[in-house]
Specification:
Elements (H helix, E strand, L loop, with lengths): L16 E8 L17 E7 L17 H13 L2 H31 L4 H25 L6
Antiparallel strand pairs: 1-2
Helix pairs in contact: 2-3
Bound molecules: zinc ion (ZN).
């Protein structure tokens, strides 16, 4: 475990990192080489033991050396993740609002439905969209809405 003590916590969830990720390919990957143009026969990665986040180097599925994987992980942990998280939160908040609007649309159309069957169908769709909006809000730990 001594080699892993230098790994920072997961940039996404704060979980403990494991630095022993290793993939061995049975033959060189097609159309992918390392920066030094050597074939990709194996790759190293660091992963979070809690949420599964991991380092990836393009199509190789990892990094050329264990040291590079560790460096990449620690850089990620230090980089502008706050900004990225804020961007992703904003996108999820928008998605929650859209689902809520779909729900409202369906409930409105259910009220004006020409028959019970159409009304039921609209209510089901309205509920589905409201559930999705609520799931997103739960994930974001926000409540209330439009
Ligand atoms: Zn994590």
């Amino acid at each position: 475990m001594s080699g892993e003590s230098a790994l920072l916590p997961c940039p996404f969830c704060g979980g403990e990192a494991s630095g022993d990720g290793h993939i061995r390919y049975t033959r060189p990957l097609n159309d992918v080489t390392w920066a030094d143009e050597s074939p990709v026969m194996e790759a190293f990665f660091v992963n979070c033991t809690a949420c599964g986040a991991r380092t990836v180097d393009f199509a190789a599925g990892g990094h050329q050396t264990k040291e590079r994987a560790h460096t990449a992980w620690n850089q990620r942990a230090h980089s502008g993740d706050g900004e990225e998280i804020a961007r992703l939160r904003e996108a999820l908040e928008k998605a929650a609002i859209w689902f809520e609007q779909y729900a409202v649309d369906h409930y409105d159309k259910a009220k004006n439905a020409p028959d019970g069957r159409e009304q039921h169908s609209r209510e089901v769709k309205g509920k589905l969209n409201r559930d999705r909006a609520n799931e997103l809000r739960d994930a974001l730990s926000i409540r209330g809405g439009v």
